[in-house]
Amino acid sequence: MELLMISPRYAEDIKRILKAAIDIDIIMSPEEADKLWSDYSNELYAGWLRLPESDESLRQTIRRVVTGV
After folding, report:
1. Does 3 map to a domain?
2. Each residue of 44-67: pLDDT tens digit?
3. For the chain, which end, N or C, has fewer CB atoms within 10 Å of the first or last residue's CB respectively?
4. Is residue 17 part of a domain?
């Protein structure tokens, strides 16, 4: 069994991304959640963007990143 190592600095963000994704019927692994937000942040020339304050904004961002719309 491979052990997943997520930086404790982003662990709470990853949990929140996973929950928001599930809320909109998108299932992903913690690694995929980490990559999704890391890639999104990099596209905006940031190391790791802070998550939106509202869960609805986070869900909209995840949907937009995943679907490309």
Report:
1. no
2. 999 899 999 999 999 999 999 999
3. N
4. yes
Rounded Cα gap, residues 44 and 39, in angstroms: 9
Whole-number Å distance between alpha carbons of 60 and 42 = 18
Q: Which domain holds residue 54?
A: 11-67
User: Does residue 60 belong to any structural domain of this protein?
Assistant: yes
The CA angle 24-26-28, to the nearest 5 degrees, is 140
**Residue at 6 is within a domain:** no
pTM value is 0.86
What single string gives the DSSP state of each residue in the chain? -PPP---TTTHHHHHHHHHHHHHTT----HHHHHHHHHHHHHHTT-SSPPPPSSHHHHHHHHHHHHH--
